[in-house]
Amino acid sequence: MDASQRAAEDPRKRSWFERISARGRQSAIEDLPEFFVIGPPRTGTSWLYEMLRGRVILPRTTKETRFFDTHFYRGLDWYQAHYPRKTDGRRIGEVAPTYFASVEARERIAQLIPTARVVCIFRDPVERILSLYRLKRAYGLIPWSFEQAIVQDPELMNTSRYSAHYRAWRKALGPHQVLATIYDDLLDDPQSFVDRLADFIGVPRFALSPLQNRWVHGSDSLTHPRSHTRTRNGTRVADWLKAQRFDRLVAAIRDSPLRQFFLSGGRPFADPPSEFAARLYELFRPEVEELETILKRDLPGWKSTAAADVA
Fold it and tell me: pLDDT of 228-250, one tens digit each?
């Protein structure tokens, strides 16, 4: 049963199909993104956003619109307002790591833009979960310790179910429209990584500068918030402003000294207990082995703490 059939049976899902006419779907193919870099989160997507800016058309003033998973009810006009009207023939895309594990985003993109190309980036699942936890904790999105968050926050685990989500995207769009890449390759050889990406999304290859070759965002500089409540409220206000399309104001605050009032200043993050990390590696071993089979590639450093330390 496809997305439209499920929507017909479920009144709660009907509205987003009904709002888009046949003419609207046709214009979506012409005017909406031709590719998506869907991560999941903490796989170098912020770095890729910076590398692609100016070479393709991306949303203005914000990296992630969250349209297909969170703001779809706002309509296509709201989404298209994030893009310039003139594209000069350049490819249109979005770097949107929250779409990877979103069933709604996958179904909506498949319905509206069936020709879209999608790029997945896979990273050691335990390293990625820890990095995502630190980001969410630093921005006041969660109040828990790492061990508590694994239980309390389903997103941490769900976004590392790589094989299931990857298969679902391939089924929704077709296997030739979904590219699987590895975060380790991005770290080891950024130029080869972006060459492959450029070929897949259909843009000319471009040379990275020496600085760009070294610069990949990480979570090592993040800290616990000085005040969880203040940081959480600041993040909520920023999200509301973005939804009202005040992205430039959010960007200005983010780049000003005022940022320090909301972010950082707390104690640094500690490494998780080795026993807990070992249990997570063992938990994800079947997932990694299944991905190895799908990609026909060995990923030994992703299977245990000892292997990760060697890698």
Answer: 666 666 667 666 665 676 666 65
pLDDT at 269 (0 to 100):
82
Report how far Cα 187 is from the mean position of its chain's Cα atoms.
17
CA 161, 152, 306, 224 dihedral sign is positive
The closest of 127, 141, 144 to 41, measured between CA atoms, is 127
Tokens of 4: 């439209």
Whether omega for the bond prior to residue 225 falls within 30 degrees of 0, making it cis, is no
Classify domain 3-127+159-218 at the CATH topology level: Rossmann fold (3.40.50)
The percent of residues above 90 in pLDDT, for the chain, comes to 62
Structure tokens at 209: 């500068």
Cβ atoms 247, 83 nearer than 8 A: no
* pLDDT per position as a tens digit, 243-297: 676 666 656 666 666 555 566 667 778 899 999 999 999 999 999 999 999 999 9
Determine the Cα–Cα distance for residues 53 and 43; give it in Å rounded to an integer: 18
Report the C-alpha gap between 268 and 117 in whole angstroms. Answer: 39
Residues present in the chain in total: 311
- 245 backbone φψ class: left, alpha, beta (φ>0; ψ -120 to 50): left
Q: How many CA atoms lie within 13 A of 223 on its CB side?
A: 11
Q: List the domain boundaries for the chain.
A: 3-127+159-218
Contacts of 230 (CB under 8 A, 6+ apart): 140, 261, 262
Task: Dig out the tokens for 216 from the structure.
Answer: 């990949």
How far from chain centre, in Å, is Cα 34?
Answer: 16
Where b means 16+ CB within 10 Å and e means fewer, 52-90 reads beebbbbbeebbbbbbbbbebeeebeebbebbeeeeeee
Distance CA 282, CA 304 (A): 7
Mean pLDDT of 302-310: 65
Could you give the 3-state DSSP secondary structure of residue 219?
coil
